[in-house]
Structures are given as C-alpha cells and as structure tokens.
Amino acid sequence: MSAGLGISASLPLSAFAGSGILGANDKITVALIGARNMGWYNLTDLLKQENVVCKILCDVDDKVLNDKAAELVEQGLKKPILEKDYRKVLEDKDIDAVIIGTPDHWHCLPAVEACEAGKHVYVEKPLANSIAESNVMLDVARRNKSLVQVGQQQRSGAHWKSAMEFVKSGKLGTIRQVKYWANFNYGSGNKPVPDSDVPEGLDYERWLGPAPRRPFNKNRFHGSWRMFRDYGGGLMTDWGVHLIDMGLWAMDVKSAPLSVRAVGGNYANSDRALEMPDTLSVLYEMEGYTMSWEHNGGIQSGPYGQNYGVLFMGTNGTLVADRDKWRIFPEGGDENPRMEGVEEHKSNHQSHINHCENFVRAIRYGDALNADIEIGHRAALYAHLGNISYWADDKVVYDEKSRKITSSIKADAMVTPAYRLPWEFPV
Ligand SMILES: NC(=O)c1ccc[n+]([C@@H]2O[C@H](COP(=O)([O-])OP(=O)(O)OC[C@H]3O[C@@H](n4cnc5c(N)ncnc54)[C@H](O)[C@@H]3O)[C@@H](O)[C@H]2O)c1
What we know:
Layout: E1 28-33, H1 38-47, E2 52-58, H2 62-74, E3 81-83, H3 86-91, E4 97-100, H4 108-116, E5 120-123, H5 131-143, E6 148-150, H6 158-169, E7 175-184, H7 204-208, H8 234-238, H9 240-250, E8 259-265, E9 279-285, E10 290-297, E11 308-314, E12 317-321, E13 325-330, E14 345-346, H10 351-365, H11 373-392, E15 398-399, E16 404-405, H12 409-412
Parallel strand pairs: 1-2, 1-4, 2-3, 4-5, 5-6, 7-10
Antiparallel strand pairs: 7-11, 8-9, 9-10, 11-12, 12-13, 13-14, 15-16
Bound molecules: nicotinamide-adenine-dinucleotide.
C-alpha cells in the first residue's frame, strides 16, 4: 500500500480504516479469491474506482487464472501474480482487501483468515453456507474491526432505496404480508452426467476444501454447484438473501423470525441433477405480519408478470419491486382510493458499481458500508432457516442468544457443517 501523509508502510491500510486520513491518491491493493464469474465482476467494478489495483488473482483452476489474467493484460493492466492457495494471498502485506468470489462452502475460512490478517473483505452472498459459519464470520470481523461488505448489491441500488423509503413512509398503511418469489429455469438443475476425470489444471482437492470428498462431476462444479448441499443452498439462499434482505431492510428487522416452516419437494425434476427442492414455500412468522418465500425451479413466470420479486402488502396498497422497477397497486378502486397513485420507479442499474464504490469509500473515508456483514449475516440466517426447516421437515425456532435451533434436535444439527480434515471449522 502507499498510504500518504507519512504513514508507515509496514502497517496495513486496514489499520487506518474509517479514520478519514486516507486521500483519493492512496492506493488500495486488492486480491481476488475465486475469479471465474461473480468474483471477476466484483474485481472489474472495483478496478473502475480511483487508485485501486489488483496484485494477485487466486483460483484453484489454472484455466480461470490464465483466462482472467489475460483479460487484465488486454485491458492494459499489469499481469497479476497467479496463486492457487488463498493463504499465500493473506500473507502478502501489500494486500489491503480481498474479494471472495468462491462457491458458498468456501466463504468462511478465507474471510475469517483475511480478517485475522488485517485485510478488509468483499465477500459474496450468501455470507456462508451455514448459520454457524456466518456467526463465526460476524464475530471475527467485529473483533478485528474489519470492514466486510457482503455482495448484496441491491442495498446500493437507488430504486431499491426509494422503494424502502416508500414502505417506511407508512403510505401503504399497515403492512400485513411481505412476499418474495423466485422462479428460475436454472433451479431445475442440469441433465445428469456421469462422474469423470478431474479437468487438467484444476486442484480439485482444494476446490472441495472442507466439503466431503467425492468423485468429480461436472454438474457439481463451476456455476452449477449451487444445487448441491455441500456447496450451496439452491434458490433459497442464492436469490433468497437478495430478496429477503429487502424485506428485512424495509421492515427494520433486527432479529430472527419467531418461527419458520418450509414445505416443498422436487416435484417436477427428479430426473435432473440437483439435491434442492425445485418447489419450496416458506412461511416466516413475524411480529404483527408474515413473510413468505416461494421458489419454482424450471419456471420463468410469476405473479405481477415478474419471475422474481418482493411485495409489501399494506391496507392501503401493495408495493411490488424487482431489479428493474417498483410499482404501487392502490386499494379501494377509483371510487374510494385509499392512497394516491404513484408513478412507476425505474432502476438505473447502477447498484453493483455503487456497491463497489461504497466499499472503497468505506476503506478510504470511513463511509458506512451499505451491506455490512451484519446485514449479510441476518439475510443468510433467514435463508438457511428456510432450507433447514425443509430438510428437517419441521417448524423451526432459532434462539439468537444460544445460537441454537431450540425446537428440534434434528434441525439444530444442521446449524454447523462438518468440515473435512485438514480443514477445520474456525473457532
Ligand atoms: N451478488 C450477486 O448478484 C451474485 C451473483 C452470482 C453469484 N454470486 C455469488 O458469488 C459466489 C461465486 O459464484 P459464481 O457464480 O461466481 O461461481 P463459479 O463457480 O462460477 O466461480 C467460483 C470460482 O471460485 C473458484 N474456487 C473454488 N474454490 C476455491 C478456492 N479454495 N480458492 C480459490 N478459488 C476457488 C472456482 O475455481 C471458480 O473459478 C457465490 O457465493 C455466489 O452465490 C453472487
């Protein structure tokens, strides 16, 4: 790092986070861990910020490393160091911040160790692949005063902010229900393929990491790992954290739901390669209203002409939103309108770059993070409780003090994942 004002070069930039003493000319050096898809998008938008440079690309797949390094060089940037072991990245004193764009089962260890190493972190959503991992990550980030931005970029979207303000204004009347739905073709999984040889240049052992050892299968790998429990949580966590986060934001939720009950199954795609239910309905019991989640893998249409969305149903009207817009459907008809009509609000589609800018400004000037780890932690909790209730086939009640599911021993056993040695669950 090259912090100005005579700051000792031996101290990481993180030591000055939020102190307001860093200027726009102070270089921020980042490394990307997990470079293929979303991690790459994050790096691309972070490199658009003033004085942000990438020193290291880390991935366990040589092809990804070489392709992405070549893209950076094509853009006229210096070829980064290529690395397969994220722990080497964290040893590098020049690195101020890491982006974690690995599959969900590989968020916790690098994030925890990055915080311990004095780095700031931009970690993708869901915060982790389990409730217990999210809890540890929150604790470690707080203990180290690390800035941890979670990739819930809707928090930085202007039209989402205005939708939230509208809900909070009370104009919708009493909110009785908050609903989320996500219908996506990819939620039906791929066609099954046989196990095969590990692709050349891939460190498969490291890709699996703390997850159980098993033969290589293309369907469980790049991109489609999300449909398998060892690595992800299906549509419930993939889209759930984005959409549920909007409800938690608008309704100012700061605690766990009173109870959660999920019902579903793989009703239409049992011949496909996926462990997740293609159909799921989850009911969250809240204080004074209900929240509900629904997803349908293999379906691309949905309520209000949207295949995904969030709605707030109030006594005066309903607000319906997605990433393009939000609209109001007033109650009472033309004769007796209970609220004024509101013009459709359109998105400017800048949420992701705004999110990256917010991360850089938080490091440099002490701006508050738009999706601080606590926000990611809460959204992940709600999403994981939905999945756990489904797998346990039971209503679940989570106690935030003891960090346990108190309603069912079977469900509580799903809070903490078993790590495969030599990887150990961080304590
Ligand atoms: N914020 C969003 O809108 C959004 C969108 C898509 C994905 N995501 C999230 O981003 C994350 C990555 O998803 P993706 O679609 O990019 O997955 P992907 O499979 O396309 O890419 C993951 C990359 O991580 C690499 N990797 C795996 N283990 C590693 C390790 N131990 N060290 C270094 N690299 C490792 C893989 O080789 C691969 O290149 C997930 O958590 C996903 O939920 C967020």
